[in-house]
Design a protein that fits this description.
heterodimer, A: three-stranded mixed sheet, 15 helices, B: mainly alpha
């Protein structure tokens, strides 16, 4: 029998439906793989019983001849930013350690309703703030990949680094991620997997620990474009509990997948040729153009003139929203309380937040507080929101000339853990290609393209018009079929 | 614009994060590095541009005016709401004395 952990979402779902194997056998295989992979530190808690219970339900439903859900029998990893009923939810922060929600996030509930089960809660950068998975209170996540000839622990990317590491290591067929400024796409690129951030509002934010509310979007991470299409279909949908949820039908992305791009125009943004980008990344971009051309698309040059300003605008807008969102962690209603002897309420807040937040979280709260403070608001925050409008307008104009945009996902491949910690700015720059689509709320995806000279994966990014996840998935599929990316990390854990 | 230690101390106090001298000293150059880098936004001509409030045009909805329109967020959840409180007492959140 095939090793069940080598299968993805579609193969598991179809195999369970056909009776090739049971959902319980799948859950047991992945539970065992998770238990063996502690060295990756991908999970903060594991929930093997949740996975088994969901599997048994699917097996019973099949035996009873009932209609099975679109994710029936697929055990997944859940980023620990989604509130899960009765299972600790921490955002990888000390301040939420032990927090056990009495409710379920909309997205996770939809996945359980579709027949998925949970292998555990995945590690991440603390409050999703980071690009390397080195800011978690529960320790770094280590990528399953190694640089050729080196034993150094590599970064799985961030913030959804537990998700990317688990899917790349085949200890989960798929995982949820969230993307605020690249947190699905960058880790997907670093680990040779696929990940899509849908249009802002497609997935409900209800029950997801908030970082920057105007940017946060959930999405799937998996090893193929088809798997992403299936899982996104299960996650998306209108939710009255999220004021920014899109009230529109969820298309059947899986059924409409089509890699024939004849009649489509692919835009190449000239401003994405930036200094400091690896030659191998530029080469893979050229290769990507050739693949999409081969799929029938016409390649056109487009201009996104405000690209270089997107990242600094993001580092005002996101911390500003974070400083407001994270004000709720006060040691009163849930989470950590640090109450030194004899102090009052204000000192309790300050002591709790000092003890509970990590350095990167504090840094962003301080930046956010500063740019929103009296006298600086207009110079920083209003200016950044205007630049954001210009970044969005650039895309609008570009999409008058093309249907989808092709760009690299990251300027470099993965780097060793600990190698980028000197200056917070160098880490921020890793998201330079990912952030513009986030600021504009557009659907964007990373698909694996190739392996560089060091044996590390490189990803290509596709950005689409608002609501056109299909166009993004289709172009991604065309690349997937031509890239023939089959490389996988050698097991060392 | 750049910040000095006193300014960082003021921001930290506004953000309700206790920071000792050493932490403040460490934060000053880090924040200045970030602030100097975002300064480049000043170069952008934003004449006539409205600051963006929502990325995807959307209108706010009113929910049905009924009790417990959504059972998950409706009333009668006192035990659930207090379940994770560090010091719940008598059905309330316990806090240190506020008024002397």
């Amino acid at each position: 029998m095939t090793d069940l952990t080598s299968l993805g979402v579609k193969d598991i779902r179809d195999g369970v439906a056909k009776g090739d194997f049971t959902a319980r056998e799948v859950a047991e295989s992945f539970n065992a793989a998770v238990a063996e992979a502690a060295a990756l530190n991908a999970f903060i808690v594991t929930t093997p019983d949740h996975a088994l219970a969901a599997a048994d339900k699917v097996d019973a439903a099949r035996a009873a001849g009932e209609q099975l859900g679109t994710m029936a029998g697929v055990p997944i990893g859940m980023k620990d930013l989604f509130a899960t009923h009765g299972v600790q939810t921490t955002a990888a922060s000390h301040i939420l350690e032990g927090f056990t929600p009495r409710y379920e996030s909309t997205v996770s509930q939809k996945l359980w309703d579709a027949g998925a089960g949970m292998l555990g809660k995945l590690n991440l950068d603390q409050f999703a703030m980071g690009s390397s998975n080195e800011t978690s209170y529960f320790g770094n996540v280590t990528s399953p990949w190694k640089k050729a000839g080196s034993n150094a622990a590599m970064s799985p990317g961030g913030s959804s680094g537990g998700s990317s590491a688990a899917v790349a290591a085949r200890i989960a067929p798929a995982a949820t991620g969230t993307d605020t400024g690249g947190s699905i796409r960058q880790p997907a690129a670093f680990t040779g997997i696929c990940g899509i951030k849908p249009t802002y509002g497609r997935c409900s934010r209800w029950g997801i620990v908030a970082f920057a509310s105007s940017l946060d979007q959930a999405g799937p991470m998996a090893r193929s474009v088809e798997d992403c299409a299936i899982m996104l279909g299960a996650m998306a949908g209108f939710d009255p509990k999220d004021a920014t949820s899109l009230q529109m039908d969820v298309p059947d992305w899986e059924a409409a997948l089509n890699s024939d791009l004849r009649g489509k125009k692919v835009g190449i943004p000239r401003e994405y040729r930036m200094e400091g980008t690896d030659q191998a990344i530029l080469d893979s971009w050229e290769q990507g153009k050739a693949w999409l051309k081969d799929a029938g698309a016409e390649i056109v040059d487009v201009s996104l003139p405000h690209t270089k300003y997107a990242l600094p605008a993001y580092y005002i807008v996101a911390p500003a929203e974070a400083s407001s969102n994270l004000a709720r962690y006060d040691g009163v209603r849930y989470g950590l309380r640090d109450l030194p002897d004899g102090v009052g309420l204000q000192d309790m807040y300050a002591a709790t937040r000092a003890a509970g937040f990590g350095d990167e979280v504090k840094r962003r709260i301080l930046i956010g507080t500063y740019v929103l403070s009296a006298g600086f608001y207009d110079a920083y925050y209003t200016q950044a929101q205007k630049v954001r409008a210009l970044v969005a307008r650039d895309f609008e104009r570009a999409f008058e000339q093309c249907d989808v945009i092709l760009a690299p996902t990251t300027p470099t491949a993965s780097f060793p853990l600990g190698s980028m910690n000197e200056d917070p700015l160098t880490m921020y720059l890793n998201d330079v290609f990912a952030v513009p689509a986030s600021l504009a709320g557009l659907p964007a995806m990373s698909v694996p393209a190739t392996i560089n000279a060091d044996g590390l994966p490189l990803g290509l990014q596709l950005v689409g018009r608002p609501f056109d996840e299909q166009g993004v998935l289709n172009a991604g599929l065309a690349i997937q079929q031509r890239a023939g990316f089959t490389a996988k990390p050698e097991k060392w854990w | 614009m750049s910040v000095d230690k006193a300014t960082v101390a003021k921001i930290a106090s506004l953000a309700r994060i206790r920071m000792d001298d050493e932490a403040l000293e460490r934060m000053v150059p880090e924040l200045n590095g970030i602030l100097q880098w975002v300064e480049q936004l000043g170069e952008v001509d934003v004449t006539g541009i409205e600051p963006m409030a929502a990325v995807i045009p959307n209108t706010l909805r009113l929910r049905e005016d009924v009790v417990d329109a959504d059972p998950l967020t409706g009333g009668g959840k006192q035990a659930d709401v207090l379940a994770n409180a560090p010091a719940a007492e008598h059905g309330f959140f316990g806090v240190p004395k506020v008024i002397e």
